[in-house]
Amino acid sequence: MPDSTDRRILRHLLADPRATNAVLAERAGVAPASLWRRLDRLRDTGVIAAIQERIDWRALGYEVQVSLRFTLDKTSPRAFDEFIAAAREVPEVTEIQTFLGSVDLRLSVIARDMAHWQQIYRDRILTLPHVSDSDALMLVSTIKDSGELAL
């Protein structure tokens, strides 16, 4: 389990993931060698899975973001596998999640505009296998988008 120093390092890392190790060590109040060892241990134990850049799809011209929820017809034992394989082939699908409950899967889909969304929906989404029900939620605004918790 991370101790208070590890949590302080993680807080600073979340606040500025691009900070150099020297800057991060200074902000966290630890020696650079100690920071390096702690980060290495946090990676080895899986606490830090990856430090990633995020793409702002709107800045690249993808103005439409849709969350699609699906319930599958599970009379086929391969329904999940076949649906997921087909969904992976849709280039505009940026995320696939599975759930327990009334919704089986959720896809995040991006499109340049409404005409592009309609084309994706007609040509790619409606052809996904084993769908018994679906629901679409179009993103209007993002109020909070953070993986941060109080550490």
What does the model show?
There is one protein chain. The chain is an alpha+beta fold. It folds into two domains: 4-44, Winged helix-like DNA-binding domain superfamily/Winged helix DNA-binding domain (Arc Repressor Mutant, subunit A); 57-138, Lrp/AsnC effector binding domain/regulation of amino acid metabolism (RAM) domain (Alpha-Beta Plaits). It is 36% helix and 20% strand. It contains five helices and four strands, in the order H-H-H-E-H-E-E-H-E. It has a four-stranded antiparallel β-sheet with strand order 2-3-1-4. Helix 2 packs across helix 3. The chain is elongated, with a radius of gyration of 21 Å. The model has no long low-confidence stretch (mean pLDDT 93).
Q: What is the CATH-assigned architecture of the largest domain? A: 2-Layer Sandwich
What's the SSE pattern?
Answer: HHHEHEEHE
Biggest sheet strand line-up: 2-3-1-4
Structural class by SSE content: alpha+beta
CATH superfamily membership of the largest domain: Lrp/AsnC effector binding domain/regulation of amino acid metabolism (RAM) domain
Number of helices: 5
Radius of gyration: 21 Å
End-to-end separation: 12 Å
Helix content: 25-40%
Query: Which fold name corresponds to the CATH topology of the largest domain?
Result: Alpha-Beta Plaits
- The CATH class of the largest domain turns out to be Alpha Beta
Q: What profile does the largest beta sheet have?
A: 4 strands, antiparallel
What's the average pLDDT? 93
Number of domains: 2
Overall body shape? elongated
Low-pLDDT segments: none
Percent of residues in β-strands: 15-25%
User: How many distinct beta strands?
Assistant: 4
GO molecular function, one term: sequence-specific DNA binding
Organism: Paracoccus subflavus
Protein name: Lrp/AsnC family transcriptional regulator
Keywords: DNA-binding, Transcription, Transcription regulation
